[in-house]
Amino acid sequence: MTDIVTPELEQYCHEMTGQESAALQALAQATRDRTRYPDNMSGRLVGQTLKMLAALSNARRVLEIGMFTGYAALSIAEALPEDGEIMCCESNPRAIAIAEEFFAQAGLSHKLNVLFGMALETIPSIEGELDMVFIDADKKKYQDYLEMTLPMVRQGGLIIIDDALWKGKVLTPQDERAQAIADLNQHICQRNDVENVLLPVRHGLNIIRKR
Ligand SMILES: C[S@@+](CC[C@H](N)C(=O)[O-])C[C@H]1O[C@@H](n2cnc3c(N)ncnc32)[C@H](O)[C@@H]1O
Description:
InterPro entries: Cation-dep_OMT (IPR050362), SAM-dependent_MTases_sf (IPR029063), SAM_O-MeTrfase (IPR002935). It comes from Endozoicomonas euniceicola. By secondary structure, this protein is an alpha/beta fold. The chain has a single domain, classed as 3-Layer(aba) Sandwich (Rossmann fold), CATH 3.40.50.150. The protein is built from 8 helices and 7 strands. The chain has helices at residues 7-15, 22-34, 44-56, 71-79, 93-105, 119-122, 142-149, 176-190; strands at residues 61-65, 85-90, 112-116, 130-135, 153-162, 194-199, 205-210. It has a 7-stranded mixed beta sheet, with helices on both faces. Helix 5 links the parallel strand 2 and strand 3 (112-116). It starts with 6 loop residues before the first helix and ends with a strand. The relative contact order is 0.14. The model has no long low-confidence stretch (mean pLDDT 96). The structure holds S-adenosylmethionine (SAM). S-adenosylmethionine (SAM) binds at residues 40-42, 66-68, 71-72, 89-92, 95, 118-119, 136-138.
């Protein structure tokens, strides 16, 4: 994947960002050892950014769309209060098994609620308000995820969209995914019910706050 910043700066940011917990380091290693596409994992920069946002916004109920092996979910869970909950949509049972194993090792299973299946089918089963949503599944469905979850987010709550710069291809979109994300970024900054900032963190994070 094309780096948004130079590889040297990316590495520097990685090294100068607070070390992850031992549990997150073990999960990252297991993801590299036991999955075919470990690059799907978000990693330290995104994970620590999400953890920081969850802490700053006093999040208690969080939804992640696209959990994979649970790196971002576990990062966020570490910032949630004891009665906090992270609901995670995921369609891959092997990835779910790894996430559950490492949540258990971290002693945080009580905060995890996995919604197994296709996200657009499982999200409607969620009741109550959400403080934060992290969108990181099927790029072509991002707009649908946003429309479905924005009404569920409390006023002042956050939606964070990953891969918002999609390999840098949003500048001159030449495939369906790049076009979908470019259209979504355009749409978000024109809405008047949210405010947002698009940051070049890893593959791009679009941070949206509901007015
Ligand atoms: C980029 S990975 C997520 C990485 C993860 N957020 C992390 O922090 O490591 C995308 C995940 O979304 C899942 N996924 C893709 N489309 C989905 C859908 N429609 N419903 C549920 N999960 C989906 C994939 O199985 C994959 O595990």
